[in-house]
């Protein structure tokens, strides 16, 4: 126990965050993964143990470095420190201080020294047309670099939509043949964290799981961690009740839009996009900061065949229940019509007729039974 | 062969034509409801999502249609074969009552075209009481159709099919007892779900299903007496009072059980004072109690019980009592919050009356053309 406390104080010093903040963070990550507080403590212990930090080779292909930017700009206190402390980044083209032949040599050495132990993170699409000549780093094509690095990686994570399935540059006509890492590394298991940019929390959760348990979290057929991409945005969206009730924003700035109604009719792709945006929101700011939260329809950035593929304002292909094309008007009726003379007369007449018939029946039965006797 | 026979006789009698006129007027509004929407014909609103269509056609109507349930219980569960002559007409009335309840529910469904979704297991919401009611009622309509099918098969002379059906009929009858037990008690659970909107005098919480079931059985037995009495009068048949009198004895037990549970619940919940508030709810409660107590006195006396007229009065009193219990809980004293009020519109009432007229017409036609009623003993 004492040793653990010391470990955490070490972390406090290293990261410049309080022990409380650190443990809160680990608990938050464990909770978003659907794990218990025991897992949170295990994660904290794993982070605190410098021996367990896996070396990381981080490659960039065709992309805007959005995923790295998203990770570095997260507002969580010292999150980037935590990430960079949690893993030992031996090679990262955006963050490396060195340049040129020097860093390439470091990369080769790191890969050689940590054969079968390093974590490979791929960011950006890989062009495969014309043998991949459209993206070169240090004279080598991204295609070759990826294949080489994947050869002896302990685990491979494709970070961002570009690396996961091609992203924006794979949009038609896709002149460079931009492809996602899982399609290039067909015989390897690639965990994908799609999103444009992806939510850093989904990356951190996955990596923390890997560091803590030495294996990857459960993934779906597209390689996405189930804890983050198991549900449609539509399923957990807080505008969903408006969808079910047929209350939609029909254009930007109309009454429905101002009242926070469902954005489906503005082309929200939430009904066909798997992601956890509604529950995690974005950049740890809170307060509804994510596209649907701020009144813009979901773009479907993390879903192959939706983001950069479907027109922004076209209706989504609803995977759950489709609403009819025409809904009745929304009106808040309270006291409607009220009691009219006709209605009262009719109700009275119906009740009276039933009672009268019963009374007549009783009388006739008496007469009849009199005859029978 | 069966010992039931068709009544025969003219179909277009005076009462039938009156019913036909009511039905035709109702049809006009039914068409309007489906072409112009619910708002055009009904006074339903945000607070009263359920009006006369659901509360009469489904909640009260299916209780009126519990004759088949009550008798199936008596004849097959308690093995009282003597009541068998009453079963087939009761099953017919139940079938029509439930079919009309289902038909009536369609008028109240805003998006009725999505109704089929309830039959797709993947879409089931197990937290919904309505799911249970919807599935159960639909299943029960099918079961009732099969329970009644022998009458049609006899008429058509399809003996092979009849024999096959008779072999599995016991299973259908078992379902015919199980399904109403499930959904009639769930109608009580609906009131639990409505929570504080239900007036305290009717909000018995976990006892709701028991009370709903007891009223269903009471109304079921009452409707059997009512039908037998009215067909004795209307079709000029011999009175079946002796058999009905025995049924009356069974009902006393149910009535007493209902009254005792009802009052004990109010006592344990500390609501007895509300009975004597003499406001609208209290008057409705007292009227309901009176309607439940009167038949107890009629049925307790063997002399009264033996007379057809007294039995009919008791039956009507119980039907009104049960209907009032449900109407009060679901509609009369229902309070969805300030600002809401509801009284059905003429069009709404006419649709319900049209449905009732259709049901009665169907009953008249079917007992005259199919072997439903038992032949008279001394004929």
Keywords:
heterodimer, A: 373 residues, alpha/beta, Rossmann fold, Cytochrome-c3 Hydrogenase, Chain A, domain 2, 2 domains, 5-stranded parallel beta sheet, two-stranded antiparallel ribbon, 9 strands, 9% strand, B: 379 residues, mainly alpha, Formate dehydrogenase/DMSO reductase fold, 0% strand
Short description:
The complex is a heterodimer of chains A (373) and B (379). With 373 residues, chain A is α/β, with parallel strands linked by helices. Chain A has helices spanning 2-15, 19-32, 37-48, 66-72, 79-86, 100-113, 142-151, 161-165, 181-184, 200-213, 226-229, 233-236, 240-245, 255-258, 277-280, 341-372; strands at residues 55-60, 88-92, 119-123, 126-127, 136-137, 140-141, 155-159, 178-179, 190-193.
Topology:
The complex is a heterodimer of chains A (373) and B (379).
Chain A: H1 2-15, H2 19-32, H3 37-48, E1 55-60, H4 66-72, H5 79-86, E2 88-92, H6 100-113, E3 119-123, E4 126-127, E5 136-137, E6 140-141, H7 142-151, E7 155-159, H8 161-165, E8 178-179, H9 181-184, E9 190-193, H10 200-213, H11 226-229, H12 233-236, H13 240-245, H14 255-258, H15 277-280, H16 341-372
Parallel strand pairs in A: 1-2, 1-3, 3-7, 7-9
Antiparallel strand pairs in A: 4-8, 5-6
Helix pairs in contact in A: 1-3, 2-3, 3-10
Chain B: H1 14-36, H2 38-41, H3 52-64, H4 67-77, H5 84-108, H6 129-156, H7 159-194, H8 208-234, H9 241-268, H10 272-275, H11 280-300, H12 302-305, H13 308-332, H14 346-369
Helix pairs in contact in B: 1-14, 3-5, 3-13, 3-14, 4-5, 4-7, 4-8, 5-6, 5-14, 6-7, 7-8, 8-9, 8-13, 9-11, 11-13
């Amino acid at each position: 126990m004492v040793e653990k406390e010391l470990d955490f104080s070490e972390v406090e010093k290293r990261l410049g965050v309080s022990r409380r903040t650190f443990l809160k963070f680990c608990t938050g990550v464990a909770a978003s993964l659907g794990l218990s507080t025991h897992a949170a403590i295990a994660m904290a212990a794993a982070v605190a143990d410098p021996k367990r930090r896996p070396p990381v080779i981080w490659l960039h292909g065709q992309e805007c470095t959005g995923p790295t930017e998203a990770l570095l700009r997260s507002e969580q206190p010292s999150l980037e420190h935590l990430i960079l402390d949690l893993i030992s980044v031996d090679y990262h083209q955006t963050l490396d201080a060195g340049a040129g032949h020097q860093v390439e040599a470091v990369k080769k050495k790191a890969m050689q020294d940590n054969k079968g132990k390093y974590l490979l993170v791929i960011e950006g699409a890989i062009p495969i047309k014309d043998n991949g000549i459209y993206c070169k780093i240090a004279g080598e094509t991204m295609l070759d670099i990826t294949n080489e690095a994947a050869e002896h990686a302990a685990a491979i994570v494709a970070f961002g939509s570009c690396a996961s399935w091609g992203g924006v540059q794979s949009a038609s006509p896709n002149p460079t043949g931009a492809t996602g890492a899982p399609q290039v590394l067909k015989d390897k298991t690639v965990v994908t964290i799609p999103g444009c940019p992806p939510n850093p929390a989904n990356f951190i959760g996955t990596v923390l799981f890997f560091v803590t348990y030495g294996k990857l979290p459960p993934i779906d057929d597209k390689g996405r961690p189930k804890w983050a991409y198991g549900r449609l945005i539509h399923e957990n969206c807080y505008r969903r009740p408006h969808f079910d009730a047929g209350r939609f924003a029909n254009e930007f700035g109309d009454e429905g839009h101002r009242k926070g109604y469902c954005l489906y009719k503005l082309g929200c792709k939430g009904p066909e996009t798997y992601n956890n945006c509604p529950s995690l929101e974005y950049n740890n700011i809170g307060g509804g900061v994510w596209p649907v939260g701020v009144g813009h329809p979901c773009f479907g950035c993390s879903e192959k065949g939706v983001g950069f593929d479907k027109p922004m304002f076209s209706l989504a292909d609803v995977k759950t229940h489709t609403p009819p094309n025409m809904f009745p008007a929304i009106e808040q009726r309270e006291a409607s019509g009220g009691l009219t003379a006709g209605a009262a007369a009719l109700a009275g007449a119906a009740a009276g007729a039933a009672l009268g018939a019963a009374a007549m029946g009783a009388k006739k039965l008496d007469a009849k039974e009199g005859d029978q006797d | 062969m069966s010992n039931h026979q068709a009544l025969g006789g003219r179909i277009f009698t005076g009462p039938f034509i009156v019913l036909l006129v009511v039905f035709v007027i109702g049809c006009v509004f039914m068409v309007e409801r489906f072409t112009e929407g619910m708002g055009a014909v009904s006074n339903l609103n945000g607070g009263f999502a359920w009006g006369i269509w659901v509360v009469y056609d489904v909640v009260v109507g299916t209780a009126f249609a519990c004759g088949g349930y009550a008798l199936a219980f008596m004849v097959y569960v308690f093995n009282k074969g003597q009541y068998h002559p009453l079963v087939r007409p009761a099953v017919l009335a139940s079938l029509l009552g439930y079919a009309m309840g289902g038909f009536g529910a369609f008028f109240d469904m805003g998006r009725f075209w999505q109704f089929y979704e309830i039959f797709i297991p993947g879409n089931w919401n197990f937290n919904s009481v309505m799911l249970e009611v919807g599935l159960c009622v639909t299943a029960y309509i099918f079961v009732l159709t099969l329970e009644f099918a022998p009458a049609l098969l006899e008429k058509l002379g399809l003996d092979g099919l009849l024999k096959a059906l008779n072999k599995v009929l016991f299973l259908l009858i078992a379902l015919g007892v199980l399904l109403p037990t499930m959904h009639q008690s769930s109608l009580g659970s609906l009131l639990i779900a409505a929570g504080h909107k239900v007036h305290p005098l009717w909000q018995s919480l976990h006892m709701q299903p028991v009370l709903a079931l007891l009223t269903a059985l009471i109304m079921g037995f009452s409707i059997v007496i009512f039908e037998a009495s009215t067909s004795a009068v209307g079709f000029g048949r011999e009175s079946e009072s002796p058999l009905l009198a025995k049924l009356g004895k069974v009902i006393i037990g149910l009535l007493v059980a209902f009254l005792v549970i009802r009052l004990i619940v109010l006592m344990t919940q500390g609501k007895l004072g509300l009975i004597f508030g003499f406001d609208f709810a209290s008057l409705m409660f007292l009227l309901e109690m009176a309607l439940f107590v009167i038949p107890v006195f009629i049925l307790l006396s063997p002399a009264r019980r033996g007379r057809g007229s007294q039995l009919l009065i008791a039956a009507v009193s119980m039907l009104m009592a049960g209907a009032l219990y449900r109407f009060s809980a679901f509609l009369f004293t229902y309070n969805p919050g300030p600002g809401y009020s509801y009284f059905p519109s003429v069009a709404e009432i006419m649709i319900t009356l049209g449905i009732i007229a259709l049901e009665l017409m169907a009953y008249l036609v079917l007992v005259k053309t199919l072997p439903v009623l038992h032949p008279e003993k001394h004929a």
